[in-house]
Amino acid sequence: MPKYMRLTKQDRAILEGKEGHGRQRAMEILETLGEIFEADRLIPIRSAQVSGVSYKNLSDAGLEFIAELAQDCRVTVPTTLNPAGADLERWEEMGVKRDFFEKQTAVIEAYTTLGIKPSCSCTPYYDVNIPKKGQHLAWGESSAVCYVNSVLGARTNREGGPSALASAIVGKTPNYGLHGDVGRKATVIIEVEKGVTDLAALGYNIGGRKDMKVPYFRGLDTGTRLEDLKPMCAALGSAGPVALFHVEGLTPEAGKALKGNPDIIHITKAEVEKTAADLSTTHGTVELVAIGCPHLSPAELRQVALILKDKEPRPDGPKLWACTSRASRKEAMAAVKVIEHFGLVLCDTCMVVSPIEGLFHSTATNSAKAAHYLVKDGYGNQQVRYGTLEAVLALLY
Ligand code: F3S
After folding, report:
1. Structural domains of the chain, ranges and CATH numbers in brackets
2. What is the pLDDT of residue 309?
């Protein structure tokens, strides 16, 4: 008997296995999660985003779990998928081995059988899964969670792969944390010194601080636009558990986010610059330039093309991976053509979830999140050179 959760008659029927084994397993996951976080009930969701797609992270055990679920249940809300371990059309050009690709294909097929759209992108909020303010969701992928909460004003906790999938199957999520107004209030004010332009490094510095929950940023450059916050979302979510932040005068819930007198932290330009410098483990030559973490939007693809236009690749220079979604690639084809003079514009995948460790040893990136993961054993084992978009692209020509 659950202690905290009030289950409806239908919830209980699912839990007792009256709607099949798959739905029962999904409900068991949600009930356990709800009890751990002392949720009062399950609430309906509008969509789900499922992470845990790359075969590199899933392995055979994960594949079997998904394939088993796919035998007797389906998702009941619109659901999209995070990036996989390879571009499903250009895996050979990436250098990915056939056996990895075949396993990856089996994963995608199992998810597709479950009724999930194989979008394989961490930015589905641009095109195929666009949440609206106030909607309840169950999304995995920390950068996307932070983006839809902070920039779009939708409501989701930071789900893991299994819980997002369970919610997609049941169509509900436990009601706690960021689903309620209280959990969305700012817990600390971050006063940013004038002149800080590297929002990814800013997010990485703040996100890595102890007990950071819902920061409220004050003092960002007045020209900052909502779309400029995407790298900060990824950095905050990779350095620590932050899944929502507010920016004074910019993000949709900032006006109501302050209550009481939260502590104030001052952060200087010099501190942010040091964080950026510390993200690099090499300043030498690199084998790969990897951008698109999170996946590039059509506007960002055009920005990259503008920088590379009329330039020629350096002989013996690094290779390029520019990661994006299939929809964004299609929308910005003219830009893609310019960029592909220098390397690959990849879909379905990214530098972190691909088997990059078998392909390159050193990578330059403009993403604090990618820099964070790529140096780690099991994620990339790379020497990393972190810099602005302009700086890492300049290594190519
Ligand atoms: Fe997306 Fe991969 Fe970065 S999933 S946020 S591009 S690590």
Report:
1. 9-179 (3.30.499.10), 182-277 (no CATH), 280-396 (3.30.499.10)
2. 97
